[in-house]
């Protein structure tokens, strides 16, 4: 077990569906509430620090889903995604304060500017890339001002608030923490000025180091400091060979035509710098998926957003995560397919290597479990 300070490890609630394989209906699981609740409850009892619920037109609403799941959990924090342009800052502030009070201070907010103009247009957001970040900057200015004692008067190009004030304070002061990810210059500027935690998708450590340093320097110029988080998938097994075999199984139903079609559509539809960086890691090719030691880009062949996974034994993956921790990452938001079983696998194998809590306790002692399977009855 490592003697370094533990990372804060979060999990993911798959509100757009789950499954054992990518790119096929075989082994697929719909995103019904009972299953999403089970994933979150498992994360809670296993000792994950929180869960991310994403946003998008193919996801269940994160705020309604999170509010419904929260009463079934005890310690878990909820990192709920929101898009600045779909509600006013004041409405988001009231909603956030209510969720935070009801859950006893377990809300975190992931501000998502958005990457797909076609999808955003369905939500009534038609601004080009640079203007969306300008709108996000105005949104965060107002949102943070609403939680100050004096409130806020602000007239911007996209948003305004006159005499705005949040009258029902949250548990966390001055407001629930703000998380944000954006790899463009505009995104980094917004993060440096406003947010508490900056998120990056899993990229090779050298790329992550450069990005974090840019955010760190610009935040310092604002007289601020930010925390850093890493969003990545995990494929952890008892040995490296078993983990790599599991990675190959995950994409075993993908054919080249499907990969090409997905990559073409994504290149046409997305204007995200972060998404472009993810796609460039593999270029749509199966023969160049290990883009850094144990960093595998196979998931990104068809999945939008973060497309990389750390693959290996618990010892190997822990060592790779420590490399990111050395760069300044303090929180890792992980996921795996399928999310319910992989939550247990990660907790049982990886947590001890990272010094996170204690391994989950079985319902019966280990010797009794062995005895029951050997003799058909529990040992006396």
UniProtKB/TrEMBL annotation:
Keyword Oxidoreductase: yes
Positions of the Luciferase-like domain: 10-330
Signal peptide (from-to): none
Database matches in Pfam families: Bac_luciferase
EC number(s) stated in the UniProt entry for this protein: 1.14.14.5
CDD domains in the cross-refs: Alkanesulfonate_monoxygenase (cd01094)
Enzyme class: oxidoreductase
GO molecular function: monooxygenase activity
Coiled coil regions in record: none
Keyword Plastid: no
SUPFAM superfamilies on file: Bacterial luciferase-like
Assigned keywords, A-Z: Flavoprotein, FMN, Monooxygenase, Oxidoreductase
Similarity section: Belongs to the SsuD family.
Identification of the protein by name: alkanesulfonate monooxygenase
Gene name in the database record: ssuD
């Amino acid at each position: 077990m490592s003697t370094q300070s533990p990372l804060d490890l979060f999990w993911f609630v798959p509100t757009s569906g789950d499954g054992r394989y990518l790119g096929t209906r075989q082994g697929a699981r719909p995103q019904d509430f009972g299953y999403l609740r089970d994933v979150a409850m498992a994360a809670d009892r296993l000792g994950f620090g929180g869960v991310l619920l994403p946003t998008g037109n193919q996801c269940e609403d994160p705020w309604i889903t999170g509010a419904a799941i929260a009463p079934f959990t005890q310690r878990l924090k909820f990192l709920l995604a929101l898009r600045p342009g779909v509600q006013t800052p004041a409405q988001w502030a009231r909603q956030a304060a209510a969720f935070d009070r009801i859950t006893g201070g377990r809300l975190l907010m992931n501000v998502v500017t958005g990457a797909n103009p076609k999808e955003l247009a369905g939500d009534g957001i038609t601004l080009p890339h640079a203007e969306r970040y300008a709108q996000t900057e105005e949104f965060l200015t107002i949102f943070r001002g609403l939680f100050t004692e004096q409130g806020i008067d602000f007239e911007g190009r996209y948003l305004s608030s006159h005499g705005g004030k949040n009258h029902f304070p949250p548990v966390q002061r001055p407001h629930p923490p703000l998380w944000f990810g954006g790899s463009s210059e505009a995104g980094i500027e917004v993060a440096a000025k406003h947010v508490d935690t900056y998120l990056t998708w899993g990229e090779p450590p050298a790329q992550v180091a450069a990005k974090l340093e840019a955010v760190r320097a610009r935040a310092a110029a604002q007289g601020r400091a930010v925390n850093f988080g890493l969003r990545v998938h995990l494929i952890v097994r008892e040995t490296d060979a078993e983990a790599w075999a599991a990675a190959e199984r995950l994409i075993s139903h993908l054919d080249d035509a499907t990969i090409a079609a997905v990559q073409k559509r994504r290149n046409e539809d997305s204007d995200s710098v972060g998404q472009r960086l993810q796609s460039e890691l593999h270029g749509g090719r199966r023969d160049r998926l290990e883009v850094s030691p144990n960093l595998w880009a196979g998931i990104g062949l068809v999945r939008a957003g973060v497309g990389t996974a750390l693959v290996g034994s618990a010892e190997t993956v822990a060592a790779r995560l420590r490399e990111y921790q050395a760069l300044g990452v303090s929180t890792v938001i992980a996921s795996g397919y399928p999310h319910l079983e992989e939550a247990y696998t990660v907790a049982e194998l990886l947590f001890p290597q990272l010094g996170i809590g204690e391994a989950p306790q079985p319902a019966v002692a280990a010797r009794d479990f062995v005895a029951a399977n050997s003799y058909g009855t529990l040992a006396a």
